[in-house]
Design a protein that fits this description.
- With 222 residues, the protein is of the alpha/beta class.
- It has nine helices and eight strands.
- The strands form two sheets. A five-stranded parallel sheet has the order 2-3-1-4-8, sandwiched between helices. Strands 6-5-7 form a three-stranded antiparallel sheet, with no helix packed on it.
- The radius of gyration is 17 Å and the shape is globular.
- The N and C termini lie close together (7 Å).
- The relative contact order is 0.19.
- The model has no long low-confidence stretch (mean pLDDT 92).
- The structure holds adenosine monophosphate.
């Protein structure tokens, strides 16, 4: 595992709770959370060159082209000093991206990939109710409501549905998940780097399950 914290990847369908759990794992292990979705939303908001290229893909629920993704991730991982550990959320999403990640990290490796499993009917219900803060990206859903309707508890920003949480874009993202991202489960399983965790239950219950699964696996390795 190296001197710092663990290098973790979270996999799971949209609405499985990856963002929320990645935040909690990053605080627990005192490592950075690196979310490509958040990075893209920030780039779109700031109207950077990457953001302008990514916007239409994101709104349609399509994957952003790899040259844009790799450009952003490479910069960010270089900043984060990967030897200190990280939690990746939303990357890799394809086998090609997983291979690129391995190359970016060499001589380090991903310590563990955790797949958070939630049935599709449950994620659809969660996504229908999901709202996010336009300023700081905090997620609000069934487990977390704003104290003041439509106003973020964290920063006071406006809380609205995500632009890509339309029925069509959600359908497309789930289709891409099963076609492009699910093959990663076999990819990491073959390398003995996969743990599968049930994502149903309260946020606290799932965090406890994750910590148990990750702790058990990392202990075995060290
Ligand atoms: P997320 O917040 O992870 O659901 O990501 C939101 C959107 O950002 C996705 O639907 C994609 O359009 C784009 N995106 C995020 N991560 C990636 C990635 N690793 N590869 C390609 N597109 C991505």
């Amino acid at each position: 595992m190296g001197d710092g914290g663990p290098r973790l990847v979270l996999l799971g369908k949209q609405g499985a709770g990856k963002g929320t759990q990645a935040d909690r794992l990053a605080s627990h292990y005192r490592v950075a959370r690196v979310s490509t979705g958040d990075m893209f939303r920030a780039a779109v908001k700031a109207e950077t060159a990457y953001g302008l290229r990514a916007r239409n893909y994101i709104d349609a629920g399509e994957l952003v082209p790899d040259d844009v993704v790799f450009g952003l991730v490479d910069e960010r991982l270089a900043e984060e000093h990967t030897s200190r550990g990280f939690v990746l959320d939303g990357f890799p999403r394809t086998v090609l991206q997983a291979e690129a990640l391995d190359a970016m990290l060499t001589p380090q490796v991903v310590d563990l990939v955790v797949e958070l499993t939630v049935p599709t009917d449950v994620v659809l219900a969660r996504l229908a109710g999901r709202r996010v803060c336009v300023e700081c990206g905090t997620n609000y859903g069934p487990d977390r409501r704003c104290a003041l309707d439509g106003v973020c508890d964290v920063c006071g920003g406006k809380v609205v549905p995500r632009d890509d949480d339309t029925e069509a874009a959600i359908g497309r993202r789930l289709e891409l998940y099963s076609r492009q991202t699910e093959p990663l489960v076999a990819y990491y399983l073959a390398q003995d780097r996969l743990a599968v965790v049930d994502g149903l239950g309260t946020v606290d219950t799932v965090t406890a399950r994750l910590l148990r699964a990750i702790g058990g696996r990392l202990d075995r390795r060290s």
